[in-house]
Amino acid sequence: MKLAPQIHLSNVQAVYAGPEGRLWELLMGEQIHIGGFQSSMDLAHRGTIAAGSEGVDLCCCSGAGMRFLARFINVARMTGVDATPAMVQLGRRRCADEGLAERVSFVEGNACDTGLASGHFHFVWGEDAWCYVEDKAKLIAEAARLVKPQGKIVFTDWMEGPSAMSETEAARFLAFMKFPNILAIGEYKSLLETNGCLVRVAHDTRRFALYMPLYLDMIEKQLTFDALKIIGFDAALAQNLVCEMRFIESLAEAGKIIQGLVVAEKAG
Fold it and tell me: CATH number, domain at 10?
């Protein structure tokens, strides 16, 4: 695990309540994760998410993943947990606008201590968001608590790849992304197994290095004005953003950062 002890929940909340969050959505869409719709469909398929099931999305942001599951997988009900009030409010508005408010609900709270009922859900869902959580051990323990016996924990996340980052690289990457730490696939597997889960799938989606050029093209070739408007037409800040994204692209190309996909099943 690589650590950035200076990064806390308040830093993450500031990102998603401010211009950085709007900028990520501009570049990546409402589904602020690598691969968008195709990634979500792949995750649902590999996690065998069933129509009529009930799930909880930990670190749900504005609930795009839950709306995807309700609309395209026909899950019966989703509950999303997120610690940023602005995202919860936005998510509720979007669900109401799309006619999904009766099937998708939000809890403003800590994903590591949700207060939701134990053993109630068929699955726990997450998409490229658990990298923002400080205590991954508590997060996985909470996910395991929430699902029924034989329930699934299904997620993608930004993870350290097979080629480890140097401490200098990790410090730069984590500080820019506002990640308090980053785990490798094996570390997530260990936490899941400790919490009584059998890991069914754990692999690199190989999307990360493919998608970074797309996001750079969007900001440099198509959405430059829109991006500048979000950050107050600060050209120096825009240049720094592109520089840091190119740095992340280089990490992905070197196999130091990946999008990992994990499916685990709680013991019956």
Answer: 3.40.50.150
Phi-psi region of 264 (alpha: psi -120 to 50; beta: other; left: phi over 0): beta
Structural tokens at position 150:
């034989």
* Domain of residue 249, residue span: 2-264
Number of folded domains that form the chain: 1
Name the packing angle between helices 19-28 and 9-16 (round to 10°): 60
pLDDT digits (tens, 9 = 90+) for 139-163: 999 999 999 999 999 999 999 999 9
pLDDT above 90: residue 76: yes
Q: Is residue 37 scored above 90 in pLDDT?
A: yes
Measured distance between the N- and C-terminal CA atoms of the chain, rounded to whole angstroms: 30
